[in-house]
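Anyone else keep sequences and structure tokens together like this?

Example one:
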Amino acid sequence: MYKPQISEAMKPQKFSSFQLFQEQHQLEKTQLFWNLSPEILIDHSLELPDVRRADSGAIAVHTGRFTGRSPENRFIVRDEITESRVDWSSINIPFSKTHFEQLYLDMMAYIQKKELYIQQVFIGGQQAHRLGLTVATELPWSSLFVHNMFLSPSPAEMESFQSEWSVFCIPSFEAHPARHGTYAPNFSVINFSQKMILIGGTAYTGEIKKGIFSVLNFLFPTYKNTLPMHCSANVGTAGDTALFFGLSGTGKTTLSSCAHRKLIGDDEHGWSREN
């Protein structure tokens, strides 16, 4: 497999500098690939046994046991920030700070001497609502997903890139429920105090996307006075906007795709006083 050296151009700046990120998470023995291009990520992915190039030129991936999300194994750390603000239920499942710390330490120990693919990206189309993310993935095609899903900083933006949240997606790391407080080996845990998401036991990349959108679903109404919406949206020539709500797979994208109207987006949006 071709393994490019980490050049100065690839290295992140300021808060998430190469050395600082390694030191913060004690990953000095881990090889980190920073902000690789889609072309290189595809090359790395095609070296793996469950990845093929489709006739269209895209890569087809077998994600293993999980071909969809596992919402019954998504947790939120119960702490001073979330205690009175989250509607705790079978959807928003509480997770202890002690179990999160043990899960994090065990995951970091597990990835020692392994390779991680890291993308620095933005979430949020408007500057006032934008967050910087550092997403570390075990698999190169997971990193490719992140590159496609979120907003890539320009070279100028990368010079002053500030990461506010970190995401670790390590499919081969499985939790032990008795030790880590999970229900199963697969998990996704959000910690608002640490500004971190831990994902393990599943290679389905939708867990990354939905984890970040879950973060925005909390932050936007709590701190930004903005309504998060799971919808598609388009706009007409007169500036009239239409919103299409519905569960996943019910046709939001199809309905919003119209030759006579411009597509704003087909998944997640925020409605603020400014728009």
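And example two:
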Amino acid sequence: MAGLLEGGSEGGGVRYPPLITVLPPPKSWDEDKTASYTESALNLLKLLGGVALVPEVHPEAGRGRRPVPFKEKTDVLEFALRLRSLGCDVVLSKYVSTVDREVFEEWTIEASRVVKGVVLVGKPFSGYPIPPNAHTVETAIPIAKRRFERVGGIVIPERRGELERVERRISLGMDFLVSQITFFPERVLDLEMGLRDRVPIYTSITGVFSERDVELLEWMGVEVPPNPPGLRSLMGRVCRFNLEHLRYTNLPLLYKALLG
């Protein structure tokens, strides 16, 4: 995990291992299908020398009709343990405002036995009904800092007041950031310049392989240009990246695209 933020020397600069978002497999999958999917994830992680980011996935029913049907996922800690047993470095992401404070704090104790890093996310979408006793990201940071070596957060460069919001979270101990998926990485770089490189920002990028991917991205609130740039083009325009695969079937497609 130290390498996630500290990087290593390369050509006189610093190289940060990329993050690779790996969705937890559906609970409905049998062991053979789960093992095959995990192998695809391992291939991509080894190819890029990356760290697995295993996210908590919410159905987000409040957003309206989902282009891709939601399937209940394997518990993130269970899947993280599987990846760790195969030699992967793993970071988890966790919604902090969907449960009572006590539930979140108990989760941090359990999760800290599995991983050394966490990305704190507020709520699944703007209209999500928050429990009255839930943490905000700001109040959750000190709790997480007591349990994990690295505590990150989500950044949305287009959001009004984002620089001030992120600076406040950094002052509380947040030490890396992950953007939402973007096809305009320069917006992330502008924010990074505003922060004067105080913490590393991982720009989330993805490949687009079908119209269904475009529909899912737009449902997620991502601005998709008429002709999305290719994956290699996006990778060449960022300092650090988080590679997302959107759908399970896209994971091997990303691997092939990078090999080609």
